Automatic annotation (TrEMBL):
Residues 21-103, 212-235 are annotated as: Disordered. GO terms for cellular component: cytoplasm; nucleus; ribonucleoprotein complex. SRA1 RNA exists in a ribonucleoprotein complex containing NCOA1. The RNA also forms a complex with PUS1 and RARG in the nucleus. Interacts with AR. The keyword Protein biosynthesis does not apply. Residues 225-235 have a biased composition (Polar residues). Belongs to the SRA1 family. It comes from Sapajus apella (Brown-capped capuchin). This is Steroid receptor RNA activator 1.
Amino acid sequence: MTRCPAGQAEVEMAELYVKPGNKERGWNDPPQFSYGLQTQAGGPRRTLLTKRVAAPQDGSPRVPASETSPGPPPMGPLPPSSNPTSPPVGSGPASGVEPTSFPVESEPLMEDVLRPLEQALEDCRGHTKKQVCDDISRRLALLQERWAGGKLSIPVKKRMALLVQELSTHQWDAADDIHRSLMVDHVTEVSQWMVGVKRLIAEKRSLFSEEAADEEKSAATAEENQTIPGFQQAP
């Protein structure tokens, strides 16, 4: 029996281990792992999150079928109204109806106020001093100028119309009260000519009192003459 040297035996053992296709392994060899077993197994595949999804063509978002909740079927279009062209009630004014017009109080005319004042001044002439009458005339001319120039407000014009009305009916106290109210409420508008109106009221009142006194005196004289026996009035 021929003994192999120690070195030759080790070489033969190494060739045995590295020879391809050899299934025999030593007891102290480390285990071999195969990294291709996971791909060969038939397990479930994971969905890649980086996969792009094509956008819908109509622009509306797509909802998965699993997320849609079951509901009643869509209803058809509503039937048209019997009169679609008629506007709703209260949407606008009815055609052919004119807005209600409210009466507006007219503004007093300048002639209606100045004419009675000038007539009262003419009645006072011959019974009042000429200087007083001339001053009243200047004040009335100033009133006319400011009225025609649009420098008097409507409240002043209306009160002057009331004053003339009271003056024409011999309501002296009422006319004087209106004069005082104008001097208090509208002093900047009436201060330059209201002095003449005040004086005219006073002169017209004095003249009326004198005329009334003369009439009473004449009536008393006539009554006395009728009571004298044998006295006859001239025809």
